[in-house]
User: What shape does this take?
Amino acid sequence: MTDDTIGGRGVNAPDVVRRDLSTEALLTVRDLRVEFGKKGQRPTTAVDEVTFEIRRGEHLGIVGESGSGKSVTSLAIMGLLPATGVRVSGQIMFDGEDLLAASEKRMRDVRGRDIAMIFQDPMTSLNPVVTIGTQISEVIRGHRDMGKAEANERAVELLRKVAMPDPGRRMKEYPHQLSGGMRQRVLIAIALANEPQLLIADEPTTALDVTIQAQILEILKQVVADTGTALIMITHDLGVVAGLCDSVHVMYQGRVVESAQRRPLFAEPRHPYTGGLLASVPRLDSPRGQPLKPIPGSPTDVLPWTQGCAFTPRCANRIDTCTEKTPALKIEGQRALRCFNPLTLSSAGGATP
Amino acid sequence: MTERRRETAEEASSKPDSTNDQLLVVRGLKVHFPIKHGILFDRTVGAVQAVDGVDLDVPRGRTFGLVGESGCGKSTLGRAILRLVEPTAGNVRFDGVDVASLQGEKLRSMRRRMQMVFQDPLASLNPRQSVETIISEPLRAHGIEYSKKNRVREVLDLVGLPASAATRFPHEFSGGQRQRIGIARAVALEPELIIADEPVSALDVSIQAQIINLLEELQERLGLTYLVIAHDLAVVRHISEEIAVMYLGGIVEQTDSEQLYLTPRHPYTIALMSAVPVPDPAIEDHRQRILLSGDLPSPANPPSGCRFHTRCPYRQETRCDTERPELRLISPGHRVACHYAEEIVAGTVTPKVDAALPV
Amino acid sequence: MTMAPPLMSPSDPMLGVDPEHGTSLWRGAWRRLRRNPVAILGALLVLAFVLIAVFASALAPYAANSREWASEVTLTSVPGPREGNLLGIDRYGSDLYSQLLYGARQSLIIGVVSTLLGLVVGAMLGILAGGLGAKVDMVVMRIVDILLSIPSLLLAVSIVAVLGQNRYAVMIAIASAQVPVFARLLRGTMLSQARSDYVLAATSLGLRRRTIVMGHVLPNSLGPTIVQATLNLSTAVIEVAALSFLGLGESDPAVAEWGRMLVAAQDRFASSPQLALWPGLAIAVSALGFTLLGEALREALDPKGRR
Assistant: This one.
């Protein structure tokens, strides 16, 4: 492992040391299960047995491909899943309150004030016919007693905080007049408007170019560091998580298959899916000509979890047990792992040791 | 790791500067889309300068990577080479033939030799055609003799799909399999050049490597030449021998893959490289990230002088604002379009002090 | 380097229910259509309409326009339902039930032929405009605009006036009102399909322009046109009646026609409302059948529903 003191710290180096994490969990998700299904049809389970907790100031990453259930998990926490055709069970404890038991009226209070969310597509999350300024001040005034002028002042201040150039002028502009990166800044400003305790970012940079992604990640990192907000980062990009999150949960087909602190997870992935992902992504710093080791099949090639491990059809490490029993998430020290035949140290295609 | 890097770098620099066998030669290519205005009569009021003067040499049998962010004109460049959009100026020579001047039937038959792989595999396949029709229709169009059953099966096998795929329709496949169909359709014509426009960016992470490996295997088996267009520098670097970096319609840097990674010289390349996240916390924690300010300017109204000067941390007064830098050779096989490339290396031109946050 | 193994696994969708043939979009649409109760209801109504029209002479207890009971018709009333005359007697002394059945034939023939005519001519104009480039498009669409600018009923009246009052004039009149609808619809879908990636792919593959237009763009643009044609059948049935009602329909008084039956019902409506009720109901139900079927087709062919 590289010594932390070596080399100059980049502007983006996450200041793990400076952020003091409280020991008490801010949000605890226990056995979250989300089923979709119309009446009379067999329900499909989108998310199952999802358990994690996040403390104040912590950055938690949820990594998965399409269909992994990572976005459904975040929508469940926000209480944004449709009321009909969806069954949510388990427990979502936020600051001592079970959000799954909370009324819709209570959830409206929580959303935007205590928990805020940023989505992938900033264009569809913004109202196209209302100015940026109005959209921000509306959110501020929706949750606290504040005059219009005061709310506008606060909106400008928020835009400044997300490094929006010329915030006063931007207040009067409409979403379509802004670039993707600028719109995402507006969304972050809206999310931060009421100083939430928890910020959920669902693929916030996927639609953006890489130099803009770097800007947005940097802004996110700084604004949450300033306020001690906990951050859940949902992404398919292992690279985004590597530089940002304290702990990482890897999801596959609705269940967490591996979770650990980021350094051990990347250095020594134990689940064949985690290892497979790391070995299949071309890395900027790997020498050319080093062949990639792809994961065979596609995310649609699955075994139902009830019949065994969902990853079995694509897994190079599979053994007979994998199709006979459903693996449980076992906790070994700092790591949780759902696998009968995990990667050993030598076979793990991990990051630079 | 460092040892290995040095090795490949040496290998790369010792490679002969093969200029004699260029399959594709592009000179001064421009594609300007007119901006029209007016209610009754369209008046041309300006032009989106999507591609504005590009030179390229793609050697036979190699992979040439074209990298840049959205709006830089890389896709338009690829399409202009294939005459899928009409170039405004410049010429494209494919194996000695001037593609830009070809018309009608000559252009059509030329297309057999240069094929394209698209970003969105579902959108680029006709949803009403079976895989068999998709693959065999171009063969028929070019009057290529084939036994329908055998050729389709052969091509499917080449891209790792079972023969049973032939009777199915695009919507019945997963994303990765669809991209294989797209590739099968392209290679069925036995082309010499394949232009792959973002071939993996629409696919799930775990699938991308399959397609990248497939492209590499096919190149080896069929002796293909690739022009790979992508926004993902890691993908381009992995697959290409030579890389050109595009910014706002022009190439700003061009060299081989190793040199570009080890010694990027254009400020934009340096920033782009530093912005690509690496899935490794040990590296991420110690990387120096150069954040660019602002957004890509509009190609309808590009900045004067160096097009990058509005975002460049190394920008020098007046010269960068007024004089457009030429793509010039700064060391063997390494071209950069920057007035101060040498001074930046020497450290006599330094970046402006970073503001706390990128604006 | 070795080839990757074929990437099929037991749960792969490709090894699904039918291992021999894939499901084309047409087949998928057909499957969705069969499962839709609205489609079944619409299809049953349409089927009943067609069967009645075809077998009218076998189903009807009396000949058309027999006027057998003309003597029983008075200035103020007509005989109502009774033994032998299920729905009673019409204004001219023929069996109302029989007249109603024969009337279906007229509505169906004119409705179908005129819609087909409108579809064929409109589709040809649409293909010309959408497939042959900007200049042809410009010319064709201006012609279509001119057609559109004339109110459809006025157009129909003028055509009947010029061609004389016969069923062919009615067909042409109704068809010409439909031409611009189909032309614009097909052109629009074709132009939007022409911008799609698979058309770009077909061009880059070196396919001929004709192959691209007829083999790629057109088949993918037909869905909305088919839906529109079905929906237009319903308006055509109504228009046939409307023209007759205005006295511009079939001139031969021996031919039973729903619209004319409505006209005939006018002066005795107070005492014998059944004279207007049954033909009115016949028009509404047959039009409803086509509308339901069209809406169900739209749902089945909707590309959004296929993922």
About this structure: Chain B has 13 helices and twelve strands. Confidence is low (pLDDT under 50) at residues 1-19 of chain B.
